[in-house]
Amino acid sequence: MAKKKLRVVIFALIPVLVLVLLAFRAFEHSAAYYYTISEAKELQAEAQKLRIKGQVVKDSVHYDPSIPLLEFALADQAAQIDVIYGGVLPDNFHHAQEVIVEGKFTSGGEFMVSKLMLQCPSKYEGEE
Question: Among 37, 47, 54, 108, whose CB has the most other CB atoms within 10 angstroms?
Fold first, then answer.
């Protein structure tokens, strides 16, 4: 009888362990770390996919709607990189306070963006 209970407990634990493993793997891949531009420049030679957060440099934005191709510079306090995004210019791009880009560095040193996310000022924040 004890052997039968042990077998039932083991078979009941297997799906629970599988679900815990799947949840852990999903959480592991959803964690987002943003590199600063200085950190990203150090990792440039590794040709890995990076997520970078920075501020758009004023007067560096060039958009060609016929391709569509968006080029701009992204900066933090210490460094700056050139960014290329092959996609449509987001409507609120010029209002964004910070930009988050995901992609890889090219051999020429530019950052080729596969995903562009904007952080705009909230309309719910109080005016200063």
Answer: 54
Q: Which residues contact 56 (CB under 8 A, 6 or more apart)?
A: 72, 73, 74, 93, 96, 99
Contact by Cβ (8 Å): 89, 70: yes
The correct CATH number of 37-119 out of 3.40.50.1820, 2.40.50.140, 3.40.50.1110, 3.40.190.10 is: 2.40.50.140
**Is 73 within 8 Å of 128 (Cβ atoms)?**
no
Task: List, for residues 41-99, the tens digit of each pLDDT value.
Answer: 888 766 688 999 999 998 999 999 999 999 999 999 989 999 999 999 998 898 887 89
